[in-house]
Amino acid sequence: MKLRFDEEDHAYFLDGKRVKAVTSVAKIPLDTYKLEQFSKRMVVTGMARRPDLVEQAAAHIGDDRVLNGIAQDAEKEAKADGGARRGTAVHRITDRIDGGEEIVPTALASHVQATWEELWTASELEVIPEYMERIVVYPDLKVCGKLDRIGRTRKGVLVVCDTKTGKWELAFPHSAAAQLALYANVDGSPITHMYRRYHPKCQAVLDTYQAEVAGERF
After folding, report:
1. Are 15 and 2 in contact (CB under 8 A)?
2. pTM (2 decimals)?
3. I need a labelling partner for 11 at 20 to 30 A (CA). Which of 3, 27, 50, 71 fits?
């Protein structure tokens, strides 16, 4: 079985065929309506900002493949605002911190580093750098996903961790719960419990599921 991950479109392929992502499978109906409406608004906003996309759409009416690509481009354009860029930056900074990479001491980076370390200390967890950004696969279900990181408690228990930023994760934690359950149970291991820590200063949520996680599983 050959696995390929397209970073730009966040798409997974098994043996050349696109398969579902864990985040898609984990969507819970409770938050679907508002998220779908938000997505539609983003497409409309992106089209308004990019007249060239409107022209492309007009030239390819009826071509689903091309129109899907145009819609994706429009959504990306709409999300390329200050708030979205800040959320992406916060996520990347936390990755650099936990991965032991150099942190350029900008105002945002210094702020996130201080508050992020507070968050991990409060959670009584330490990150395991070698298990960051690992892809998990359900071959039979044709589902793949990439977990953020694995942490370790003071008692040595390993936990699957996922970093969240933005208001949706706070308002609708249900999808995050299902998402981490899929990561933690990739080989059928039972979940014992979930807990979350939120740090308002850096607007980040650290969701964790405690499970007996074996290294070879990833």
Report:
1. yes
2. 0.66
3. 50
